[in-house]
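Q: What does the assembled structure look like for these inputs?
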Amino acid sequence: MTEKPNTLRLKRLGIDTHQEAIVYMRHDCLVCRAEGFSAQTRIRVANGTTSIIATLNLIAGDLLAYGEASLSEAAWTRLGVVDGGEVTVSHPRPLDSLSRVRAKVYGHRLNGEGLAEILQDVVDGRYSDIHLASFITACSAQRLDRDEMIALTRAMVDVGDRLDWGTSPVVDKHSVGGLPGNRTTPIIVAIVTACGLSMPKTSSRAITSPSGTADTMETMAPVDLDLDTMRHVVKKEGGCIIWGGAVRLSPADDILIRVERALELDSEGQLVASVLSKKAAAGSTHLVLDLPVGPTAKVRTEVDAETLGAHLMGVAEAFGLTTRVVRSDGSQPVGRGIGPALEARDVLAVLQGAPDAPLDLKDRAITLAGALLELGAAAPEGGGVDLADAALRDGRAWSKFQAICAAQGGMRELPTAAHTRPILAGRAGRIASIDNRRLAKAAKLAGAPDAKAAGLELHTHLGREVAKGEPLFTLHAETRGELVYALKYTENHTPIIRIGEG
Amino acid sequence: MTEKPNTLRLKRLGIDTHQEAIVYMRHDCLVCRAEGFSAQTRIRVANGTTSIIATLNLIAGDLLAYGEASLSEAAWTRLGVVDGGEVTVSHPRPLDSLSRVRAKVYGHRLNGEGLAEILQDVVDGRYSDIHLASFITACSAQRLDRDEMIALTRAMVDVGDRLDWGTSPVVDKHSVGGLPGNRTTPIIVAIVTACGLSMPKTSSRAITSPSGTADTMETMAPVDLDLDTMRHVVKKEGGCIIWGGAVRLSPADDILIRVERALELDSEGQLVASVLSKKAAAGSTHLVLDLPVGPTAKVRTEVDAETLGAHLMGVAEAFGLTTRVVRSDGSQPVGRGIGPALEARDVLAVLQGAPDAPLDLKDRAITLAGALLELGAAAPEGGGVDLADAALRDGRAWSKFQAICAAQGGMRELPTAAHTRPILAGRAGRIASIDNRRLAKAAKLAGAPDAKAAGLELHTHLGREVAKGEPLFTLHAETRGELVYALKYTENHTPIIRIGEG
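A:
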């Protein structure tokens, strides 16, 4: 213990706990004893005027000397500390907003003030996983009504930054519940900006999938732009496709979504607030929402799509967002590639008008771009699809895409995988089903998304005839070890693609 | 990486995360890459045929060499591993029971089969904090009905050990929502066993309070007995007062209760299952339940006490437990001492019939012991209190208590604190209120419950007159530093005891 009360010297141990803030202290630390801290106590850790709330882990060995403490990597970054620097530790103020969560648990409605308090505590890192899970569960068990959805969306917008482009329309699109390979976004941005609309697009990286739109785009151009550079690109080219993590839009959503995923709970109210808070914060004015409907998609039935669509429209209206909902087929992967560079290859083929470009990806992009063009008044009602198709055919979209990539820092050459291996059809017949989850898993085991060239290439689709020995898909990996690993998984989980009678 | 796939060598880092199982692996570990593990992934860690589920933390520095892994202390113990030993890591099987939790979230009733699956996964350590919090929240938001309470209680009993004493009656008591200093248990066990009833009592240690019954008892005799020793003591003396942690009764309750506390959620259904699963597992047949009712107690109103009492009786009946509910005053601390040895001093004063023994503690013990004596047919209906009082007055209870302590390993001398400091009344007047929460905090800062002699001694009660300069309470600490620390807290949180007009 140093002379200053509750002050400890930091030693970096380099422990990565993902987002979770952990503070490590010696089990026989005098501060622990004095303050009554024990393992799992929530503690306020301050570096000057900056502070975070962290969970205490105690160290019994000699990793820390007397008077030393450490932080998990996430906490280290958030607190902006240096090795050897000092922090002070203390009890945090009581988590008063938890009484709002409890009221919701017991069936009371949440109002705007209550939601604002909860979301502020969430982005301040004051909610542990236990608190986050309880809030999310309460909002699923006691369904949010329309007013609560609007208030939640507003609270999520208010605790983050909000962009203002000083112009209208600013268009955006979102697909609810992604399908593997469904990389329409770069194509749509190219088409609608080529037709004069403004589309400053922020996308996410993969969390559990083999690639996110930002991962795919990153194989073609830099996506890690700060707000000033983003503004510069949008001013110059009318649009961009960047990673949303660098700009702080709806940061509460990033925190909540991880816990929702662990619970596989995805209530209507939270889905609506998640999607629309990002769009409202990004300064969008006109919005097309793609709802893929299918037995293994997020939205399973037309009835569900109807209800969800109505909520999305209602809440979007409260934020002054002009919105159109488009339902699409959610029964199988889109395009051929699964993995960052392999998906980019599909995107480029469509943009370049290559004869072998995947038609399904192209058709989806044109449909959604057409809706955006009509919504943003760049095309007459009913004329959006034709305009989108024309912009793609005459090369305007491709030129615009190249210009955007240049503005974002320069177009990149796609990496290719050193190791590939085709998986062959064991018999002749018709493709009866494709296991999307296992395909995604195989692509991840091959190294995607960290290994940009890794993943797999699909050679067939539902309902197609295949001959015995014809390749069904090809695994791509950057190292031999990863190829073997993905191959083993594929062999142990046959059939990922099921072949029925011809 | 060793030759065997997914095998890692263990290095003990000594990180105490309380109950949470964490596995530490290098961020550039080949197994992580191959399996697709990332920070916070839930991983199955196996030592031969024993396995646990742990959350992954990644180490960026040199704490671990290639091919090494580590475990949090809780995981280390549960897996029974040694430094340098090997473990294998893999993906756990899917957590299927989570679909039962989700069904409850969405308003479906839980049946016995569903609850059994959930509770099995809970005790197997397969639920992370996120999953536990969701289950607890769901059971509060979608109230458990009587049948669900019974099924939850049964599931909690079934996943642990169950004692059978081969005799009846086996009596027990429980106070719902403890008051500071309310250490009636050792007195009650002494009285009813002196009167011929069997009362094998397991108690808990403090988690957030300055002392649990097991902590207090431990200053008078060993409490850390295994099942065989416990049986021996009960056979010889008819009763015992031991720590319940050594025998595995309703282990799911220990896991759930920590999360309930963090959420400050304590639904009727979970409270009923928590109390009664422990009693049923302990082999009790006759049960007295003490419900202290007061504005800052767990049960706030007579109406709440009525409803809760009915559920407790109903579920107890389903397990064949003959039960009586006794309501008591829950408005202020009981006795004088707060802290292990100081509470033990009150207990001994009552048992020894000391003239200055705290009357409130004695009266409560006699009331509850009287109810148990009637319930267990050791006294006629209406004659329990007189018998209890007599057993206390004529020294039978004191003799029995000494015999029990001897059987548990020998009666101990109470430790006394080296440092004490009285806190004086700043003015004359009548005691208007006592802040139980802050009193408990001061006792903990003075070192309780780890420092057995530490805590505080109350010199007054609600409604009493005090003169200016008269001591209100005395702080007890084993070290000078802790005394100063508790003193500072007391000075900064004046008044803990509020004095009104005389």
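The longest strand of chain A covers residues 50-59.
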